[in-house]
Fold these 3 entries.
Entry 1:
Amino acid sequence: MDVLLDVRDLQTQFTTSGGVVRAVDGVSWDVRAGETVALVGESGCGKSVSALSVMRLVAAPAGRIVGGRILFKGRDLLALRDDEMRKMRGREIGMIFQEPMTSLNPVLTIGRQLTETLEIHLGMSPAQARARAGEILGLVGISDPERRLRQYPHQFSGGMRQRIMIAMALSCNPALILADEPTTALDVTIQAQILELLNRLQGELGMAVLLITHDLGVVAETADRVAVMYAGQVVEYCDVNSAFKRTLHPYTGGLLASLPRLGAPRETLRVIPGNVPNPSSFPTGCRFHPRCPVVEDRCRAKEPPILTFDGDHASRCWRADEIAGGKLRPFGEESSRV
């Protein structure tokens, strides 16, 4: 498949009273046409800032992209003028934001918020845009679209507002959707419906999806490839099967070990000790070493490079070769040489 979005060595920083925050620090990943790539990691690892950087929506002047390339269909988004980037947003790249109630304008009807995008990007007349808005609401499973177009965001449930956000992102048939925690704060039934909807629409429309989540269950159901982020960096990058069956980084192993399992006693639930480090003062060496169960001296002294195994499985760990060779288990109480 052709590479649709190619992010290379992306660096995004925020200037604060406490110093420079390196929220995204040398991140590289790509999305191919028609596939789903998941960005995974704990809160504060840089997932959402990565997506906002792609859309060039990082709030200035505190936030700025200081390095790297973002190639979309071969064009560097960082080199585009502001007016060119505005034409790209919504038309070529759509985004589903994490919290629809704060992303939708509370004083405009749903119809106006949908038709505005269609009129600006596709040059539709108001009548054409309203007809298309009704069609797209039907596509995402909202009944009686004519009545719904006249309503305001507060008149919808959380699941319905998320469907509206998906409708807005899809309205211009973009090639790529950035979905930032699209099921956050929804109950499991609505969550399943939203994920099923995204999968169905992706199949019907042939779009690519960058899915940002911390839910590994969602990743297992929807993703083709996974980029695991920790402390502003990608620490593991592989296909979804490898992520669950042959992880090569202790952090990914820790995320998997912390998943609850049916039938397991409650006391066996594991956690990764410690917290994600402050992005204004990352530890020396490997950024995961203060929490890592298999840390050694070189991990504390020097930052590991990205090592590649089997052609396309990458890990940022000094001991990845030992894990790959079965000499080291990546995480858990039993982590030891075997």
Note: The mean pLDDT is 90.
Entry 2:
Amino acid sequence: MEMETAQENLLKKREALGIVVQEKTNQPILSTLNAMVEKFAVCNSHPGEKLPCKVCFDEMQAQREHRKERERLAEEKAEREKQEYLQNIKDHPEQTMTACGVGKRYLSCSFETFKGADKVKAVCKALVEKPESIVLTGDTGSGKTHLAVAILRESVKAGKVINSKGAIFTTVPDLLLSIRSGFGNSSGFEQSEEDFVNEYAKTPFLILDDLGAEKSTEWATATLSAIIDKRYRELLPTVYTTNLTLDEISNQLSRRISSRMSEAKIIKLSMPDYRRKRSA
């Protein structure tokens, strides 16, 4: 209280003596700042336009729309090329069939060129829309391989298989040979036996042709059993062709393989030698 009274008395004395006290102000600084804002608030790209620049905004909008249009056209082109590619596969399935492992002798095999056995063909055709495992069994020349390849052909034409990653066609002897020679080579690219087995075990669609024609060894049986069992557990469709009955497979290979195959649809072909009939 005493300090406030002293300050008041000091002010009165200054006024009496004509001493004017000027209050401190930031006005010069504020003026400078305002001038700087005015200077730098102008668009560098469009002199005369203050920020935010409407011209820049319109240009950015136009660029954004142009970029969207380019992306849309690129997507349409990619989709068009994809559809053209798929249509070409459907019109000419042989190239994909070859990539899947079908040899030249069987490239022309189709349901149309298989004469007779209409009920059997109907069952095989149904597998294209609803894939499941099937065993085609019968004597040599009864058309087992022809039907198996026809299933693959229709799967390609239906867009279910579009490249070699979607299906594998192989004879069982060739399968075992490729696995044995593959994991033991010295190419510098190391792959284990399991890697080669998984290639067949995990492919979406597998055709095992001529099961039972391979030399029966403990290793061959174990390898086949591993592939068939993994496919069985993963519900992956497999087409088997064989001259053997399930009982003969059980005795010649293993009960485990026969048991897994028994879960598939079994079709017995009792036709005469189809190859001779076709060439007659």
Note: The first helix runs from residue 2 to 17.
Entry 3:
Amino acid sequence: MPVTFTNFGEVKTDLYQAAFNQAKLILGKAQSSAQAVVSMSKSSPTYADVSKAFKRFWGSNDPTTVSRRLGMVKSAMLTSDLVIEYDPTDTSKAYVFASHCATSEGQAFTPKIHFCPALVTGFSSLGTNSAAGTIIHEMTHLVLNTDDKIYGMKSCSELSDPNKLVNADNYKYYSELFQLVRLSMMPALSDSYDGTHSPPRK
């Protein structure tokens, strides 16, 4: 299904499109990895890294549940007629409106995200706190009705297991791991982030 970029005017959409495509890519890898925790043999040489990555952001949550929820977001990015509207005046990176979000998992949502200049201007396209990760964060608000209970990678890893499943940044940071060449190279836990998140607008 098409992704429509609106209100960009003279602003080129290439970098925004690249960030969106990268978000789809790492989200697919994240979903596959979550499912691999169930299906992979514990004797596999990569199982330890996959399991460690999963436990960091999901704790003891059921990997099948996590994989299903990641898959719902990925499916929405692939099949929804998503509208990406440019907001040149907002200082956050991206945002959605609460009224556009599903009321619960599996319910209808309005497929619209607002992108702001900070998403790609002076902001990492890859790695932790990436543009792609931010897009995934916002998509989980729309599709899964996630909350912004807490920000920062270390704090996300320390949430209770039920809260990990409904916190948008857990999806973001877990997915960003799949930009790495090897999961054994996971970054040290830190709460360093740029502070320009914005919860769904009323």
Note: The chain has a mean pLDDT of 85.
